[in-house]
Each structure stands twice: as structure tokens, then as C-alpha cells.
Specification:
Radius of gyration: 23 Å
Number of helices: 5
Shape: elongated
Order of helices and strands: HHHHH
Distance between the termini: 50 Å
Number of strands: 0
Structural class: mainly alpha
Length: 119
């Protein structure tokens, strides 16, 4: 889909917002406001991108026959890094820590694998 309507509304809203800033604020206030928005965007977007990439990689590692302990440690280490990058990253990092601990503690179900192999 082209999403023309969404694009037009986005451009119009952005232009209206910038016009409002320039009409009512000084240049230094506009610059400070835009810098703060840029910083806030980075604080939200960067941990999100790291979280999505980590989630995909660890799902692949958990489903493959790779080391579950390595996957658990990857989850724990990266969750700590995400918390250091952004305060907002602490919420999804809690889930990664729980998943990492579960991957470290949980033993593979050997009986199921043996029963499948005998049948």
C-alpha cells in the first residue's frame, strides 16, 4: 500500500508543529526543544531496536541445537547493557533476565527425546 494519507498527515503535522515553534519561540528555544526530542527518541528507539534484535537472535538460538546456557548468558548480559543505555530499557530487560535465568536453569527434557528416538 502507498499510505498516501498517512504520509500527507504526517508531513502536514510536522510542518505545522515546526511553524508553531518558529513563530512563538526564540531560535535557542527551538534548538533546545528539537535536541531534547532527538535525545528522547534515541532513549526510546535504541533500546527497542536492541531488544527486537536480541529477541530474534535468542529465539533462533533457543530453537536450534545450540548451547542453551550461552543463550541464557547472552540474554542476561544484553539486558544489563540495555539498562545502562536507557532507563526505559529496564522494563523489557526484566523479561530478558527472566528468560535468561530460565534458559540457564532449565534442563533439556531427555526423556522426551529418548521416547521419540525409540518409536
Amino acid at each position: 500500500m502507498k499510505r498516501t494519507g498517512e504520509s500527507v498527515l504526517n508531513i502536514t503535522g510536522t510542518e505545522a508543529y515546526l511553524n508553531y515553534l518558529h513563530a512563538n519561540w526564540s531560535k535557542s528555544e527551538v534548538a533546545a526543544s528539537l535536541d531534547q526530542m532527538n535525545l528522547a527518541g534515541t532513549m526510546w528507539v535504541l533500546p527497542g531496536i536492541i531488544g527486537v534484535a536480541l529477541g530474534i537472535i535468542t529465539m533462533i538460538l533457543l530453537k536450534s541445537k545450540g548451547s542453551q546456557k550461552l543463550t541464557g548468558w547472552i540474554l542476561i548480559i544484553v539486558s544489563v547493557v540495555v539498562c545502562m543505555i536507557s532507563v526505559f530499557g529496564c522494563i523489557p530487560a526484566m523479561f530478558f533476565i527472566i528468560a535468561g535465568i530460565m534458559a540457564l536453569v532449565r534442563n533439556p527434557n531427555v526423556r522426551k527425546k529418548q521416547a521419540i528416538g525409540k518409536g
